[in-house]
């Protein structure tokens, strides 16, 4: 898996904002899709540099890889499936993506059509981010 390519894909899909904004669910967010939590020390009125927020992204990305590895054995999966799982965990968090029970079973089985079906059967696809989920499905469709 090309880690830098995946990072760039996630950054592109997330977009970048140098100050706090509300995401599609009304949650405070900054940078490349970083969910602002009470432990963070971000000010509502301050603009941050891309360098500052890139380091936050790198921490979030590493957490997504760790979380993905807790849900599935990434090393046993096709690299496109690895990328999809990591991006799902990046966006939804470990807890959020762990609720995709049937999808996780399909991932373990590397059943591409079932993974796609489960992703498209989600509220995430239907109500929140259809383009994002479609992009993930397209990544899966590339597997030959």
Distance between the termini: 16 Å
| Beta-strand residue fraction | 5-15%
Oligomer: single chain
Number of β-strand runs: 3
Radius of gyration: 15 Å
If strands are numbered along the chain, what order do they take across the biggest sheet? 1-2-3
The average pLDDT value, as a whole number, equals: 95
Low-confidence spans: none
Q: How would you portray this structure in words?
A:
With 144 residues, the protein is mainly α. Helices cover 62% and strands 8% of the residues. It contains seven helices and three strands, in the order αβββαααααα. It has a three-stranded antiparallel sheet. Strand 1 and strand 2 (28-31) form a beta hairpin. Helix 2 packs across helix 3 (79-98), helix 3 (79-98) packs antiparallel against helix 7 and helix 4 runs antiparallel to helix 5. The mean pLDDT is 95.
Short description, anyone?
The protein has 144 residues and is mostly helical. It has helices spanning 3-14, 50-71, 79-98, 101-109, 112-120, 123-128, 130-141; strands spanning 17-22, 28-31, 34-35.
Write the topology of this structure.
Elements: H1 3-14, E1 17-22, E2 28-31, E3 34-35, H2 50-71, H3 79-98, H4 101-109, H5 112-120, H6 123-128, H7 130-141
Helix pairs in contact: 2-3, 3-7, 4-5, 5-7
Can you give keywords for this protein?
144 residues; mainly alpha; 7 helices; 3 strands; globular
């Amino acid at each position: 898996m090309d880690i830098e390519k995946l990072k760039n894909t996630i950054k592109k899909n997330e977009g970048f904002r140098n100050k706090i904004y509300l995401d599609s669910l009304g949650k405070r967010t900054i940078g490349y899709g970083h969910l602002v939590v009470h432990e963070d020390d971000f000010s509502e009125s301050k603009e941050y540099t891309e360098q500052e927020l890139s380091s936050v992204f790198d921490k979030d990305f590493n957490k997504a890889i760790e979380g993905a590895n807790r849900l599935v054995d990434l090393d046993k999966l096709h690299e496109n499936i690895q990328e999809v799982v990591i991006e799902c965990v990046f966006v939804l968090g470990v807890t959020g993506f762990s609720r995709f029970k049937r999808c996780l079973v399909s991932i373990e089985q590397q059943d591409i059509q079932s993974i796609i079906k489960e992703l498209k059967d989600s509220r995430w696809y239907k109500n929140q981010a259809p383009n994002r989920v479609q992009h993930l499905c397209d990544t899966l469709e590339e597997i030959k």
